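Format notes (please read before filing issues)

Several people have asked whether sequences and structure tokens are stored in separate files. They are not. Every record keeps both together, in the order shown below: the sequence lines, then the token lines. Line labels are part of the format and must not be stripped during preprocessing.
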Amino acid sequence: LLGEFSSTRVGVAMLILRVVTGVAMMIHGKGKVMRDGEFVMFNWMGPDSTTPGIMQFIASFSEFFGGLALVVGLLTPLAALGIAATMLGAIFIAHAGDPWIDTKGGRSFEM
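Then the structure lines:
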């Protein structure tokens, strides 16, 4: 089953993909963990948000710490599942009505 994935080239490519994806997710989630020297994991959407604090925590945790887990290779399948679930939630809930490209400077999928 793992014979074709055990080659050095494939292993190095998977490592690079995992590290780049992990660092990108950490960068994407760092503002949701800490802002201005203060932890904001439960309220990074602001005081007027209708999203419960626990859901904001789960999103920020999976983005930043899931990315960190990918970088170091710790519980990689679980970290990838958490990141995928968070990003699917962002696509289908947070950005459901956004256009692919917004030429007026608003929200878009492109960003």
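For reference, the curators noted about this record: The helical segments are 8-33, 53-72, 76-94. The longest helix spans residues 8-33.
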